[in-house]
Amino acid sequence: MDQSKTNSEAERILERITDAYYALDLSWRFTYVNGQAERLLNRRREDLLGKNVWDEFPEAVGSVFQENFQRAIAENTVVSLEEYYQPFKTWLEVRAYPAPEGLSVYFHDIGERKMLETEQVRLANTNRLLLESSREGIYSIDIGGRFTSANSAAMDMLGYDVDEVLGREAHALIHHTRLDGSPHSRTDSRIHRVLQSGKSYHVEDDVFWRKDSTEFRVGYTASPIVVAGVVEGVVVNFSDITERVALEETREALFTRDRNIAEQLQVALQPDVPDRVPGMAVAKYYEAALTNEANVGGDFYDVFSIKKGVTALVVGDLSGKGLLAAAQVATVRNMLRAFLLTRPVISSALNALNNVLAKHAMLKGFATLFVGVYNESTRTLTYVNCGQEPALIRRFNTQEIEELQSTGPVMGAFPNARYREKTVSMNRLDALAVFTDGFTEVGPSHSNMLEIDGVIALLKQDFHFDAAISPTSAVRIIRRTLIQGVNEAARGGDIRDDMCLLVAVAE
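-> structure tokens emitted (507 positions)
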């Protein structure tokens, strides 16, 4: 399918839906605003795109809107709310759907409906004009489930004239069958439950049937009509969500396709790593993030020989997610190999690589890199850390942890940035652990993550080996202990970013 054609069709659907709609990225910036949202927000989309929603609508900071939007992202759950928004002096019905790239928000003004709910006894007489002006379909039924009123929008969607439905049993007429073709009994209907319980129900996705026996997808709210404390009927507000459902299904299909391609590309780009390189035993680990928090990203590792007895150990992370980040791994990894193989000084190689990437805007974002070069004859590790998480060395003799902190900024963002190299010695059974921020960000919530101190604590554990153990066995024990510790730290939470790890133990 042509991508531009798909995107164009998606935008046309978004402009035709009756709901106001906007999309936010994970930094709370507007990425799309449809025409309905422009009208309801009284703001032009050109003035909103790329801006932070909380900066543009500061009155919403600390409100239930912010609280629910944050919960939708943190818990990966759909949130629905009805709330009065003082700046607009109206009630809004909002449905927010989390996605890997951010949040999709559908909303509309329900001030009219709130008025109807509080003045139900005057529904038939005083609110007729208001009902007819609503874009939502609105109808009411009595205690027996029979139509007592319906507005023009409802009749247009259902294909009836109002005289054809008044006095007829609504469920048998428009709500009799489920989407899969199975019978939908009246007692199973949420609308009927309102008559029994006196409570309102909101349904995200259901099916109503037209006069011509065709179905359409609806979202609706059913609220009781209460007179003198007694439920006398139900008022139902509904919208045709067929196009919105189709759009979400298209978005999901595109997301699944891109993720599958990105996963295959990531696997293809990750090189085979031998169990042993000159002077070191090596182990690797890679795990992609779960789809409910993030798409496949640009984490990678690489281990290759620079010359006899000298080995490069690399862990990197390309900013962004999905197919683009995965594809850019090849650019950074292959260019890094070329510079390291042709320049004897590591920092010089990294300076040159950064200039090429930054000056020619070869990355959509930036990269973090840890590049270490181990020399078997001198038993030294010379490294450059380009904005990566600190690599950790566990000293076997002292059981102390040494952090190999950043020696320069992220890669590909700042032309002419300078990177310093440092050199540390490696004694037998000293262990090097290099990892991306997927390790430090694991945890049950964004406010309770493992962080670097947690990884250090895992590395300090007694791994139950002594000087008699082989480096190959030691590296496998350390890798297993780190992974088990990270999984335990998650405590049922999701992996929010790819996890990439290299462990090396000196011989």
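Residues 270-506 form a domain with the Phosphatase 2c; domain 1 fold (CATH 3.60.40.10).
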